[in-house]
């Protein structure tokens, strides 16, 4: 499943074509989904407004962001237990990643997002979901050559 796997931090960086320069990242949650945009050149991410919707309403907002930002690929944070084991939210985030790929036909890369929300809250973020999406995206961007 090319472009859909980065199972954990110990894995090798994903194979991302060098012409992919812009990315949109998501910190998936049942009620809220944090969003960040970023690019490969600067290796930085900028928080975007958190999506506060579920189901088809969530995907309508995702589609609007994709139209606005025109990313080359998408990045989804996948939570895990501290020991790396998957849990229910792991599977939900992976399902979300598959749905993004299926609906928008863009490559989707998964990033281990353990502790991203904790890090966002510790930094005093006003919107922890968007800040988590930034952390996820910057981690991904740092893994690229």
Describe this structure in words.
By secondary structure, the protein is an alpha/beta fold. It has one domain: Nucleotidyltransferase, domain 5, CATH 3.30.420. It has 4 helices and 5 strands. It has helices at residues 55-69, 88-104, 116-122, 128-142; strands spanning 22-27, 33-39, 44-51, 73-78, 108-112. The chain has a 5-stranded mixed beta sheet, with helices on both faces. Helix 3 (116-122) crosses helix 4. The longest helix has 17 residues, at 88-104. It is globular and about 35 Å long. The model is unreliable at 1-12 (pLDDT under 50).
Short overview:
The protein has 145 residues and is of the alpha/beta class. It has four helices and five strands. The protein has helices at residues 55-69, 88-104, 116-122, 128-142; strands spanning 22-27, 33-39, 44-51, 73-78, 108-112.
Radius of gyration: 14 Å
CATH superfamily: YqgF/RNase H-like domain
Shape: globular
Low-confidence stretches: 1-12
Listing every helix as H and every strand as E from the N terminus to the C terminus, the arrangement reads EEEHEHEHH
Helix count equals: 4
CATH class: Alpha Beta
* Total number of domains: 1
Which fold name corresponds to the CATH topology? Nucleotidyltransferase, domain 5
Helix fraction bin = 25-40%
Distance between the termini: 21 Å
Q: What's the rounded overall pLDDT mean? A: 89
Question: Strand arrangement, largest sheet?
Answer: 3-2-1-4-5
CATH architecture classification name: 2-Layer Sandwich
Number of separate strands: 5
Structural class: alpha/beta
The largest sheet, given as strand count, sense and whether it forms a barrel, is: 5 strands, mixed
Strand content: 15-25%
Organism: Variovorax ureilyticus
EC number: 3.1.-.-
Family: Belongs to the YqgF HJR family.
Pfam family, one: RuvX
């Amino acid at each position: 499943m090319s472009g859909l796997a980065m199972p954990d931090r110990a894995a090798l960086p994903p194979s991302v074509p060098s012409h992919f320069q812009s990315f949109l990242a998501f910190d998936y949650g049942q009620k809220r989904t944090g969003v960040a945009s970023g690019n490969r050149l600067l290796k930085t991410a900028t928080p975007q407004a958190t999506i506060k919707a579920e189901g088809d309403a969530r995907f309508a907002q995702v589609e609007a962001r994709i139209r606005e930002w025109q990313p080359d690929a998408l990045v989804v944070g996948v939570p895990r237990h501290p020991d790396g084991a998957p849990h229910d939210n792991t599977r939900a985030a992976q399902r979300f990643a598959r749905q993004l790929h299926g609906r928008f036909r863009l490559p989707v890369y998964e990033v281990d997002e353990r502790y991203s929300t904790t890090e966002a809250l510790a930094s005093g973020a006003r919107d922890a979901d968007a800040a988590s999406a930034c952390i996820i995206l910057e981690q991904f961007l740092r893994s690229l050559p």
